Amino acid sequence: MIAEMELMKSEFSRRYDAMMNDYEELGTVVRQLNKQLKKRDEELSILRIRYEDAMAENDLLYEAFNNELDQMYDLFEQKSSSRGRRTATSMDHPHEQQGGDTNNQRRPAHPSPEAQIRKKLELTIKERNQWHQTACKLARELQSLSQMSGSSSSLNTTPSSSSTNISMMAATSTTTSHNIRPANSRSTPIPPFRHSSQ
């Protein structure tokens, strides 16, 4: 009877030691996962700040683009009106117009207002596309980190509320990044010579 009790005691001690070892190993794994989760949260915060900065710069770019279009359109209207006045004046003074034509022939060719506006418009569209690509790239990175953070939090660890909010923001930003529109969009008068973005 005593031998059986000793055997049961030794078996219990062995199982208890094994259980404690497993507990310590699991505790180590949980601590490592918590460190990784905290690191991912910090990366998500940094990436979110970068994404918001990129979107703010994109909005500023669109605003500058609209202002530039307004200025170009106003300049074109002014040049058109002044050209019409010069034409009317030349009809009243044909001899002076001939002398002016001779002087114009001696001057170097200057790009037309339409060519200047098209060139500026192409440069602005190129910059806009570059910012659009940057915003899409940041949105994809944000979604990828959110998914990795969500998968690591499934092992009985409670992630911070910020990671959940960031994951929701990543899903929304990924959907909207493919069709970015300026925040301060407004109707801009389109001149008849406006260059197509195709």
Tally of separate helices: 4
The outline comes out as: rod-shaped
Q: What's the order of the H and E elements?
A: HHHH
Average pLDDT, all residues: 71
- Classify the helix fraction into a percent range: over 70%
What is the number of E strands? 0
SS content category: mainly alpha
What is the gyration radius calculated from CA atoms? 35 Å
Count structural domains: 1
Q: Please state roughly what percent of the residues sit in beta strands, choosing from under 5%, 5-15%, 15-25%, 25-35%, 35-45% or over 45%.
A: under 5%
Poorly predicted regions are 155-198
Ends distance: 94 Å
Major β-sheet annotation: none
Biased composition (Low complexity): 149-177
Biased composition (Polar residues): 178-188
Region (Disordered): 79-114, 149-198
